[in-house]
Design brief:
mainly alpha, 375 residues
């Protein structure tokens, strides 16, 4: 039995436990339940949820500068290391040949970023400072690493709700996008069959592509260079075909470790004090609006391309112009097949999806440059 004089020391955790901590622990459990029971982006939501639970246990010391989460935050979030490492892995997984064989699809990747700037304007009207409004708008790209990268530079105090919104909405792509797709397109449009006779893409082109993209974007939008260069580095490893060990490491060990530490650290920022406030609810709503606007803009531009092409383009691929790779591309193809089982638009959708990946990075860089210049 413990002596009575030890009890006050042992009960410090309970004494400092607040209703806010309880609410956030429940939130962490919800994220874990979504990951385990529904399998919604479990690689992301499970560590975020567990990190949230740990962050709301009082007096663990894990949030201190020398505690586990303090060290991880300083080592991988404040200097943007974890998002950059994740982009190396993402680049190693992406095949840009569908985009290179159909360059016009880059227009859908650009259209899929409209919601970012539309939400930025709305957020400023709601009295958010410009730096915070820009960080909130980037949620619409549904690109977790880019959202974290921009938020860390422009609005570190809002990192928790922005990161949680970006990753949560990424996991909910199959739920959020289909209603928008069906609302803005007719069944006849969803049944459009697209011919896929891709132009051959040479190995030389595939190798030159990441180098050229890095140079062009780096010179035009320097603030986007860290993100785009790591994405293109991963892709260069893949397409060179001479560093299989590095490619496998980028696709597996590097991205897995970075994602685990990123998820835990993002979850650790979800403390009751920083998360349970009115701003958080507004950010979640604005982030959802940005996502819907991005999807709608892509679909509407897809409809325009369908009209201009004489009905040769299925507008559903416009919804894949966001950055949720490869989920958005697969979902667009699935919705088309739900209407017509023999309608195969996957390669077109993946081309638009990879264009959206590039578009979101460029949009993030443009916002960083503009906001930094204005402020």
């Amino acid at each position: 039995m413990f002596s009575s004089d030890l009890w006050p020391e042992l009960s410090k955790g309970l004494a400092n436990f607040t209703p806010g901590n309880a609410v956030m622990i429940v939130a962490g459990l919800v994220l874990i339940a979504l990951a385990v029971l529904k399998e919604y982006e479990p690689v992301l939501l499970l560590p975020i949820g567990f990190g949230c639970i740990l962050a709301n246990i009082p007096l663990t010391g894990m949030l201190d500068d020398h505690g586990l989460f303090g060290v991880l935050y300083n080592a991988g979030i404040s200097n943007e290391l974890f998002p950059l490492l994740i982009f190396v892995g993402v680049g190693a997984m992406i095949d840009f040949s569908p985009l290179l064989s159909q360059p016009r699809l880059v227009l859908l990747g650009a259209a899929g970023q409209f919601g970012i700037f539309g939400t930025l304007i709305l957020a400023t009207l709601l009295k958010f400072p410009l730096n915070e409004a820009a960080s909130i708008g980037v949620i619409g790209a549904i690109d977790g690493p880019t959202s974290i990268y921009v938020a860390t530079k422009l609005a570190p105090d809002l990192l928790a709700p922005i990161a949680v919104a970006a990753y949560s909405y990424m996991s909910l792509v199959p739920i959020i996008q289909p209603p928008v797709m069906k609302l803005l397109t007719t069944r006849q449009e969803r049944c459009i069959r697209m011919e896929y006779a891709p132009r051959p893409v040479s190995r030389r082109a595939l190798i030159l592509f990441p180098i050229v993209v890095t140079l062009v974007i780096g010179l035009l939008v320097p603030d986007a260079t860290p993100l785009i260069s790591m994405l293109m580095l991963g892709n260069l490893l893949r397409e060179s075909r001479v560093v299989e060990r590095l490619t496998r490491a980028a696709e597996n060990e590097i991205i897995n470790v970075a994602t685990l530490f990123l998820g835990l650290t993002v979850g650790s920022t979800m403390t009751a004090a920083s998360f349970l406030r009115l701003d958080t609810i507004q950010i979640l709503i604005l982030g959802l609006l940005a996502f819907v606007l991005d999807t709608a803009a892509g679909l509407l531009f897809g409809k325009l391309m369908a009209r201009v092409s004489g009905g040769k383009i299925n507008p559903l691929i416009g919804a894949a112009g966001i950055s949720a790779f490869p989920m958005a591309g697969r979902l667009a193809a699935q919705v088309a097949q739900d209407e017509d089982f023999e309608n195969f638009i996957l390669m077109h959708a993946m081309g638009a999806n990879t264009a959206g990946q590039l578009g979101s990075v460029m949009a993030g860089g443009v916002l960083l440059a503009l906001v930094t210049a204005i402020l």
